[in-house]
Design goal:
alpha/beta, globular, 7 helices, 7 strands, Spore Coat Polysaccharide Biosynthesis Protein SpsA, Chain A
Amino acid sequence: MRHSRPALIVFCREPIAHQSKTRLIGAITPATAAALSDAFIRDALAKAVAVRTSRIVIAASAPDGAESSKYFRRLARQFDADLFDQGNGPLGRRMARALEPFSSDGALLIGTDTPSLPTALLDASLEALRRNRIVVAPSLDGGYYAIGVRGAMPPIFTSIRWGSRTVFASTIARLERDGLPYALGPAWYDVDRWPDVMLLAAHLRMLARARRRTGSSVCPATESVLMRLGLLHHAR
């Protein structure tokens, strides 16, 4: 049975120096780490627009609340997105809270740490959610970068060691233990640490060579920051 196009939720925190991408600080300055976080968010929202989902939602965390954040209000206007405050509590509770209002047609919640994710793969996860109650798209670090739910909320957001390399495996084990059918989205890599940034830069350099023919960029905001860091150069 096919359902209408699910909503797409971009789950993110306001980029603030010394608070954003802290595992990169040392290799780059706190201000540059925050700039990279901002670029990841913008590229994720641009992909959300490109896949033409039914609704774009920014599920945001900000010091004084999402609605009080000039940063998020500006992004919501720019990308024609609804703004939703994540609220307090553990990560799983905040993700479940963001997904719950969309139980009818479902929603796919994505993080922002996969800037090079091709739009076609994001679209594949959205399409999978039209046919399945639950979709999980794994990341190569042992977690997942996208989770989609349609219908009643499954018990997969509690008793998980968030941030560990067992998040994806634990989530799948919970689904299988409870007999809940699910589909897998395409796997991709996260960018959390400096070696991940170097991998990203190498990947983007390879894509830039191919782009001489296509003329498109998979993550232009991120590319701009990496160029300022000297990790990328304008294609000739």
